[in-house]
Amino acid sequence: MDERIGLAVDWLVQNQRTDTTGGAGWGWVPDVPPNPQDTAEVVCALIGIGGEVPNKAEVVRLLQRDSVLGDPRGARVFRAPIDMAWRLRALLALGFGPADRHVTGCVAELLAEQDPVTGGWRMSSRTGAVSVTATTEALRALVGVAPANNPADPITESVTRGIRFVVSALLDDDVQFRPLFASAQAAIVLLLPEIASFGGKRLERARELALAHVLETLRDGGARVEEETVRRGDVADSWRHVSLHWAVTALACAGGGTIFDPAFRGALKDLLDLQDTEPALSTRGGFRTSREGFVTTYATVQALAAMGGIRVTLNERVNPAKVFDLICRDEGTSPDDPQELLAIRGRSMVMNSYAGAAVLAIGAPSGATIAILAVAFANRLGDIGSRALVVWGTLFIALGTYLYVTTRFPAIPKVRTGALVFAGFTAVILPVLTFLLS
Length: 438
Known about the structure:
By secondary structure, the protein is mostly helical. The protein is about 60% helix and about 10% strand. It has a two-stranded antiparallel sheet with strand order 1-2. Strand 9 and strand 10 (about 345-350) form a beta hairpin. Helix 6 runs antiparallel to helix 7 (about 155-170), helix 7 (about 155-170) crosses helix 10 and helix 11 (about 245-255) runs parallel beside helix 13.
């Protein structure tokens, strides 16, 4: 995991760009001029894993602005709630205090943009529906400056209303929180110790529901890239939600036994497969938005956050021997290792050679008994009944044989084993039994 994290950090560092006004940072992709929002994401990710921010002074200069100059499309303003939330988080991570004028500016903007009815935030200023993404990011930012033990403070009151909106929506199964990225974002924000201190049993129940929904959606293969529109002034952008990255982050942050769930292990494998690791690639270290997508700063940042959370959880709960055992269970070729025989909707059926032998030991006598009785009482059962029972009994033997051979010789492809067993029973066993019944 450290090597993968290092590759991602190297890609981010190599793709830092300067602008025309003395600032430095990142754009959505390397060939896009740096902007405050994407730069803030990278800053939070790097500091979150204990890394250093390159060209820190220039990065701060960019974060303290709310517009981008030198863009071919003209000056772009980054004052949407989602932008202000990320900028606030980045400034706090860089060590700026609550009294800094840029910090207070971001806070004032977020307080003014909070929806008075729901308590949530929109992606765009006063347009569109309340957004899960904007709300959770605003909460993560504001809780960093909310005074402790002062419920009357405007910032604390704002955070309380925002948390109440998220918790109530989860408990009411609000349609907004059904997408994978939304459930994951809600789980992440409710897992924060600073946020958890605001709630009680309702918050804990909402968090459990969000995590359960994330796991269930991963089992059903629901991880996909989804889009949400955000307007920055007169320019409309598409915010691409990398649901898989968010889901892995949420489950990693949850810790406990979650990391041992097969759905999480499969999602982690899929996530790491999205990283370009070939030395010859210019994108080496960066993460793609999906298998068909391309490498972006946003996808790399979210993957970095996920890997950081996993590293912490693994260091706390998993020793090297257990990691090695998990690898052997997934890739081992010993008959003692469990082999995946079938996977349906993300749920795997696994078995080792001892279990396969037990199935054969039970299935073979059972199937033989059924077939022998069918032959013995063929006159009473009739042709159709006796032959149907013969086929049924033979199926028990064939299934036991397949399971034992597959688990005893895991190096042989399962498709080949199945074809040989099917061919053997249909070409030899069944004709013999049919002859006995004729």
